[in-house]
Design a protein that fits this description.
The chain has three helices and four strands; from the N terminus they run E-H-E-E-H-E-H. The radius of gyration is 11 Å and the shape is globular. A hairpin with a 2-residue loop joins strand 2 and strand 3. Helix 1 packs antiparallel against helix 3. It is an alpha+beta fold. The longest helix has 13 residues.
Length: 86
């Protein structure tokens, strides 16, 4: 059985190298596949370059989607990282 979860987060800072790296670390703790969407782009949350390539700036609303047994926990953890990024 596969679970899914989705939420929207408003970024306090641009999704540059440091916060992207923290997102990758958070996503790697889970089995679920986590994606972050911004406008018409989607990136795997386990890839720093893909996340930075989204071009999401401070104040942007991004959508987190996860699929897998621990999807809800993965989305919650990644959202926590994104909302506390500096």
């Amino acid at each position: 059985m596969s679970a899914s979860s989705e939420t929207t987060v408003v970024l306090p800072v641009a999704l540059h190298a440091r916060p992207a790296g923290k997102v990758v670390q958070a996503a790697a703790r889970f089995e679920a596949q986590v994606e972050i969407g911004y406008r018409d782009r989607v990136a795997n949350a386990r890839g720093v370059l893909g996340l930075m390539g989204l071009g999401a700036t401070a104040g942007a609303a991004v959508t987190l989607r996860a699929t897998g047994a621990d999807a809800a926990a993965a989305v919650e953890a990644v959202a926590a990282v994104l909302t506390s990024a500096s």
